[in-house]
Write a structure and sequence with these properties.
Elements lengths: L1 H19 L16 E12 L3 E12 L9 E10 L4 E13 L2 E16 L21 E5 L2 E8 L8 E16 L4 H5 L7 E13 L10 E11 L9 E13 L4 E14 L36 E18 L2 E17 L12 E12 L2 E10 L5 E7 L4
Antiparallel strand pairs: 1-2, 2-3, 3-4, 4-5, 5-6, 5-7, 6-8, 7-8, 8-9, 9-10, 10-11, 11-12, 12-13, 13-14, 14-15, 15-16, 16-17
Length: about 400
């Protein structure tokens, strides 16, 4: 599958550059000009042990303009189906300086999963699980249309590292447990499903040299989400997320990147929120492509989640296509995570769940495609991921 994906990626980059570099009028010297747009579209034809055979398409477009960093507008869309009955469709917009100094971000999505994973609560959940993600004991059917919108700004000026944001998110979750499932037996809060609206707020201290592919600096973030009757939610709970992302340039081509995340939920928390974190970049887990790679998606869940991601990023080659720079990179990584949940045994303090692996990166300016292979060192089971953007 890698060869056609790589070829298509570079073909689209070529078309983008060629469109921007048309021949000048007779008698005029050609002017080298950066294209005002990057476009990427990839077919999603894949297999993973988490979701089976998948097919669909995903695309992204970056529009550039003078004085707008890292871009003026970004649009992304995805249509995805899997052989296990999953659907994940979305449309996303990002305008870093759309309303003067304010950044407007939003996402409209529809998710449906015929076999959504649920292994119970806590750091030692489902001890009898042997890797069969199709086992009905560890699944349920879920549907969840929703949206979120966020307004982010720099109150002390464009060059100041402090940012703050406010927003709102809403989702209506339908839950259909299988008769033999752990979910049907345990009946946690949220088994009735229903709407969950959240007021979102947060603050960041961002000293990265660039947002899309940073090499120095970092981001510290504190995020709050509150859900209750006033937010059109069936459940009343709150969450706090603390995150640290740091980047060290070891050489001209080598960068060490580190992320630490702690997410805590309080109150009447529905079980389908146990797997999510807050903040600007929402993650799932513990387990999966956005938290601990190599472990089954959402394998460990609870009110408190902590995970660490360490990556050594190497820019292996730089090349020029129609005068435009393209980079090929490689990554090795080590992920680690665990959860705590009230009322269950979470094991000893050192009972963390690790995953290791490596991957490839194809990038042009703000556009990055990542492909990762990962393995759980606890179980030996393996995972493969293809998606847009760095993990952090």
């Amino acid at each position: 599958m890698l060869a056609p994906v790589i070829c298509l990626f570079f073909l689209l980059l070529t078309l983008s550059a060629a469109a921007a570099g048309r021949a000048p009028a007779p008698g005029l010297q050609p002017v080298k000009k950066a294209p005002s747009m990057d476009g990427i579209a990839l077919p999603l034809v894949s297999f993973s042990s988490d979701q089976g055979f998948g097919y669909g398409a995903v695309g992204g477009m970056y529009l550039y303009a003078p004085g707008k960093t890292p871009y003026a507008h970004a649009l992304a869309a995805q249509i995805f189906f899997s052989s296990r009955g999953a659907q994940n469709h979305y449309l996303r917009y990002d305008g870093p300086q759309l309303l003067g100094p304010l950044r407007l971000e939003g996402r409209l999505e529809y998710r449906q999963e015929k076999s959504s994973p649920f292994f119970g609560a806590g750091n030692l959940s489902a001890p009898n699980f042997r890797g069969n993600v199709e086992d009905e004991r560890y699944n349920f059917d879920k549907g969840s249309p929703g949206f979120w919108v966020r307004l982010r700004g720099r109150p002390f000026g464009e060059t100041h590292p402090f940012q703050s944001y406010v927003g709102y998110g809403w989702r209506n979750t339908s839950v259909a447990p299988y008769e033999t499932s752990i979910l049907a037996q345990e009946k946690p809060i949220g088994i009735e499903g229903g709407p969950s609206g959240q007021i979102l707020a947060g603050a960041l201290w961002d000293t990265r040299d660039q947002e899309g592919d940073p090499t120095t600096g970092g981001v510290e973030e504190v995020a709050l989400r509150v859900s209750g009757l006033a937010t059109f939610s069936r459940y009343q709970y709150a969450g706090v997320t603390l995150s640290e992302r740091r980047y060290f340039k070891l050489s001209e081509r080598l960068v060490f990147a580190q992320r630490l995340t702690l997410d805590m939920l309080f109150g009447e928390v529905p079980f389908f929120e146990w797997m999510t974190t807050g903040g600007v970049n929402i993650s799932e887990g513990i387990g999966g492509m956005s938290s601990v790679r190599g472990i089954e998606r959402n394998r460990f869940a609870g009110n408190v989640k902590a995970f660490s991601n360490s990556e050594l990023r190497f820019q292996a080659a730089r090349m020029s296509i129609f005068g435009q720079p393209v980079a090929l990179g490689a990554v090795v990584f080590f992920d680690l995570g665990r959860v705590w949940h009230p009322g269950v045994s979470d094991g000893k303090w050192h009972d963390w769940h690790p995953g290791i692996g490596g991957g490839l990166r194809f990038s042009r300016r703000a556009a990055v495609v990542r492909m990762d292979y990962a393995r759980s060192t606890e179980t030996g089971r393996q995972r493969f991921y293809v998606t847009f953007g760095h993990m952090f």
